[in-house]
Design a protein that fits this description.
Order of helices and strands: HHHHEHEEHEHEEEEH
Distance between the termini: 79 Å
Number of strands: 8
Helix content: 40-55%
Strand content: 15-25%
Length: about 240
């Protein structure tokens, strides 16, 4: 009898704790939604100083601070992420294991079919980055930064368009290894490691740069990839 009472008490306690967690999550979701709606309204033209001031205020709210934002918006990580935004296209990808981030740094960024399935474009827009980060940070603590110069991107985008190859993206060309078919019958590409700037631990703010990073890298292999696409369409 005593055992049954203990079991029932334990079940009730667990149910109460689950309800408590759901309430807290709901409150956090409401907080985020309200904040984003507010920022999307009259405040959408705020200056960078206004936005950073709001982010600092949010950090001070202990109940939500660790959930809503970590170290990504500190000066050094944010500067590393957006440093090339004036003349390059920047993308971010999240991964759980640091070994995976290191492998991307060394080997390049692998993607199936579409580059944009797991790589998000970011701009010098704190609100846009804040929304994207909060939507993807659960995928891992390690944020990989990919960067392609506008000069390289626009060159191949123009060539694709001029040759009627609109079904292909520039990222499909910027590979130094031949694409392959995976177990799901997807075509897998590997963006050159030269376009991997490094990665950031968005929990700690620690930055790991890629010493071989070169956003303006242009290889003869890219031209060969482009020629193969043209031959593929002809056949």
């Amino acid at each position: 009898m005593v055992t049954q009472i203990l079991i029932i008490s334990l079940i009730v306690a667990l149910l109460a704790y689950i309800i408590f967690l759901h309430v807290r999550i709901a409150k956090k979701d409401l907080f985020i939604e309200t904040t984003i709606k507010r920022l999307s309204g009259n405040e959408k033209n705020w200056s960078e100083e206004d936005m950073m001031r709001l982010l600092q205020e949010i950090k001070k709210v202990n109940h939500y601070g660790s959930f809503f934002i970590e170290k990504l918006f500190d000066e050094k990580p944010l500067g590393f992420l957006l440093e090339n935004q004036k003349d390059s296209r920047i993308y971010i990808h999240y991964t759980k294991e640091e070994t995976d981030a290191k492998n991307i740094l060394k080997e390049g960024f692998m993607f199936a079919d579409s580059f944009y399935k797991t790589a998000l474009p970011v701009f010098d827009d704190r609100l846009d980055l804040l929304i994207k980060h909060n939507g993807r940070k659960s995928f891992g603590d390690y944020l990989v930064v990919l960067c392609i110069s506008d000069k390289v991107f626009n060159h191949y985008a123009t060539e694709l368009d001029r040759n009627g190859l609109k079904e292909f993206s520039v990222e499909n060309i910027l590979t130094e290894k031949a694409p392959f078919i995976n177990d799901n019958a997807d075509i897998v590409y590997q963006l050159s490691s030269r376009f991997v700037k490094g990665y950031i631990n968005h929990q700690t703010g620690e930055i790991t740069p890629n010493p071989d990073f070169n956003p303006g890298y242009d290889s003869q292999l890219f031209e060969r990839n482009f020629d193969h696409l043209k031959e593929k369409i002809k056949n």
